[in-house]
Here is the input.
Amino acid sequence: MRLGLGSRLGFGAFAAVVLAFIYVPIGVVTLNSFNSDRTFGWPPPGLTTQWWSLALEAQGPRDAIATSVKAGLGATAIALVLGSLLSLALTRYAFFGKHAISILVVLPIALPGIVTGVALQSVITNVLNPVFGINAGLFTIVVGHATFCIVVVFNNVTARLRRLGGSLEAASADLGARPLTTFRLVTFPLLRSAVIAGALLAFALSFDEIVVTTFTAGPGTPTLPIWIFNNLFRPNQAPVVNVVAVVLIAVSIIPVWLAQRLAGSSAAESRL
Amino acid sequence: MGSKKALAGLLAPPLLWLVVAYLGALAAIFATAFWTTDPFTNQVVRVFTTENIRALFEPTYLRIIGRTLLIAATVTVLCIVIAVPFAFFMARVAPARVRGLLVAAVLVPLWASYLVKAYAWRTMVQPGGVLESALGSTPGYGLGAVVLTLTYLWLPYMVLPVYAGFERLPASHLEASADLGAHGLTTFRRVILPSLLPSIAAGSIFTFSLSLGDYIAVQIVGGTLQVLGTAVLQNITLDLPFAAALGTASVVIMVLYLLAVRRTGALDNL
Here is the structure.
């Protein structure tokens, strides 16, 4: 199918418009963090860095960042262990119920976030609170995040395990190594970059998450996205929120970019 | 590697977590939908009743569900209309060395925070904002802004599968079609589109499902717009069983959508 120059230019122009559509909002947010107009009138009457210095001193965002980091680290740690275990089990063994389990793993991310949120909140109110005395807080945030971070780690480790094949492990067994030794000396070093990529993606996912977190966070422990959401509708907090938003863009992008360098483009797409 | 004990050891911790924490919670929701609340204390009363399911069919909630379905469908169609030509450009028109850059260009905003992107659109549609100064008017907070923002948010989810679909389409098919005398549009309609259908359907699963359950972007740019997600949010503290019924409705809709889409072979593409 040969396309004339006119059609090619037409498609190119369309693509340029789409790319502009994709990047303009991000550019606007970044530019607005320097907008001297408090209400973000456009075009900006002037540029200033006062919002950035104001945000750097604000206590609210700092506490929220700390909560987000703690939740992210906790959720990533749990997801790493559980996701890797699941991945090893599903790629190296054949057993009854394997297909069902692979669907179960994807479910937390596949179902609308609000369903997961409502489910987890009902567990908190009906089980965790009366039986264990646990309130909504950092623990419940970590539990919620870990549940869908598992699939991110699972995807990365599974992709790597499939690419490796079983021959190296078989050779190691032939040479007399026990399963644990084989894992320690052969499998894990080969998996390492995939595991790290999965961990980075899980952390990014947890740090950015808001849909489920609004249901699992208690009133006193906002994560950074929740802090932003709570302050979105307060006009005098608007400039600080904007600066925090720009920071959040950078923080979301960097771990995923690193993960892509480590494990290839499939890692970044598994963020889907 | 084949011992059953090792397998059990590997599976037990994650399954314990997923089945107990997650599946258990899901089952709890579906059960809660059939309970009710005491009108005085607002505590959940564990008595089986179908009044919540019946309440879903009241005009108010039918309207809300209908509006949410309309939003999800519109967003999906808009994403398809934008993604297909763009992916075609990426796969067939752009020079090979630019292709990787284009893929990265589409992926990068995907990684940026969902919340920030919705917030960006809020500042753009607000009175006095970018849209008003650039185009002269702005849709303001409401249905239009919601559709625009959701299309923006989920566009990469449609572009990537469609791009993969275009890559899988052999160039020889397109040449054969031209050799048989078909013009561009005919080739598009009878060769490209049918073979692209699974990829489009796969992308639509994301756009439809994400739009169906969304309540954050809707609140940020939608003003007082009521959708399924915001209705759940409104009822969750005082009437958990009804919120659970609404949540169940969204799961049922998604399952029906997945079943309908399965016939196109989209699920094999995920």
Summary: Chain B touches chain A through 92 residues (CB under 8 Å). The longest strand of chain B covers residues 36-37. The beta strands of chain B are 36-37, 44-45. Chain B has one domain: 53-269.
